[in-house]
Amino acid sequence: MSLEIRQVTKKYKDFIAVDQLNFTIQEGEIFGLIGQNGAGKTTTFRMILNLQETTEGEIFWKGKSVHKLNRDFLGYLPEERGIFPQMKVEEQLYFFGMLRGKTKKELKPAIDYWIERFELDDKRVEKAETLSKGNQQKVQLIASFIHRPDFIILDEPFSGLDPVNRQHLMDAILYLKKQGTTILFSSHQMDNVEELCDHLCILKRGVSLYSGGLQDLKESYGKIKLSLRTERPLEELLLMTGVKSAVNTKDGQILLLEDERYGEEIFQAISNGQYIDKFSMDYLSLDEIFKLKVGEKHV
Predict the structure, then answer these.
(1) Where in the chain is the domain with CATH 3.30.70.920?
(2) What Cα–Cα distance (Å) separates residue 238 from each residue in 213, 243, 266, 289, 296?
(3) Is 167 strand, coil or helix?
(4) CB distance 156 to 193 below 8 Å
(5) What is the signed CA dihedral for 150, 176, 167, 145, rounded to 10 degrees?
(6) What is the spatial distance between Cα 84 and Cα 86, in angstroms, rounded to a whole number?
(7) Which residue in 132, 206, 258, 296 has a CA-CA distance of 20 to 30 Å to 228?
(8) Neighbour-count burial of 55, counting CB atoms closer than 10 A to its CB (0-12 exposed, 13-18 middle, 19+ buried)
(9) Is 239 in a helix, a strand, or coil?
(10) CATH number of the domain at 3-218, please?
(11) Helix or strand or coil: residue 191?
(12) pLDDT digits 0-9 by tens, 210-243
């Protein structure tokens, strides 16, 4: 494993921001840390970065305490964006890279590559303040990994991006993974987490509700999402055994079942031996699971 969070707690007087947190990230994987605002995600990032001390517990990188390591192995994109508005794009990237111990000669090929890849070539000598929000975000992202860190933390990297720039960022993250970089990121957009991550941790008020594989999480709920197309009224569908909820959509109805085993019984009742245009059972999306799980009461 690369990163290990072991029984980590962060207290501020009477407030517990992170409570006995445990998770591990394997080398070269993308790991998602998700939760509502105030769940403890940024506090966790800051403890990994040694910007805040842990009240209890330990954090290890490849078996060694992160507090004893040279910080150049890390890259960080904070949620609060921060680049120098008066500094030119290319100068900015050299500056951040040299802060991490790289020379201009070492940085030039990487800067040229990423400026071209992110379609910033005509912005090289422009001041950051003149750039669009999306382009500023791309510059700050490049700055977070221009020194080629082994481990990168991305705090809400997709926030405010249009679909084109979102895809640029998505492709960059996958490229870094192929290069062997270990990535930890948070996002309120669950489709991004679902597309990128094999493993994740769900936080609620500083407590981990789940840590493990995304597919394992989905399978724990079963295939309880039933999409169908029928003329039967919603009120009648809601009365069927095993149906927890039902809604009309533009393409039919979606039912949430108590258990996937009710699917066959519902199929028989609705079809009654007749052709059905649509009847499909599937796992819940991560967004749906998140709403269910975070909405549950936990003691």
Answers:
(1) 223-282
(2) 32, 6, 11, 21, 22
(3) helix
(4) no
(5) 40
(6) 6
(7) 296
(8) middle
(9) coil
(10) 3.40.50.300
(11) helix
(12) 999 999 999 999 999 999 998 889 999 999 999 9
Do the beta carbons of residue 200 and residue 33 sit within 8 Å? yes
Cβ neighbour number for residue 98 with a 10 Å cutoff? 15
Element (H, E) at 299: none
Start-end of H helices in the chain: 41-48, 89-99, 104-117, 133-145, 163-178, 190-196, 214-221, 234-238, 262-271, 286-295
Helix (H, G, I), strand (E, B) or coil at 181: coil
| Chain mean position to CA 172 | 14
Q: Where in the chain is the domain with CATH 3.40.50.300?
A: 3-218
From residue 44, alpha-carbon distances to 8, 41, 279 in Å are: 9, 5, 43
SS3 111: helix
**Assigned CATH topology for domain 223-282:** Alpha-Beta Plaits (3.30.70)
Six-digit token string for 257: 């079942």
Q: Which two tokens stand for residue 137?
A: 């975000």
* C-alpha–C-alpha distance, residues 172 and 153, integer Å: 14
**Per-position b or e across 270-279, b if 16+ CB within 10 A of its CB:** beeeeeeeeb
Which segment of 76-80, 124-128, 135-139 scores lowest on mean pLDDT? 76-80
Please name the residue ranges forming H helices in 148-196.
163-178, 190-196
pTM: 0.89
Cα–Cα distance for residue pair 26/177, rounded to 1 Å: 12
Residue pair 284/254 in contact (Cβ under 8 Å)? The answer is no
Q: Return d(Cα 271, Cα 85) in angstroms, integer.
A: 64
Q: Please state, for a pLDDT cut of 70, what percent of the chain lies above it.
A: 98
Residue among 286, 220, 252 nearest 34 (CA): 286
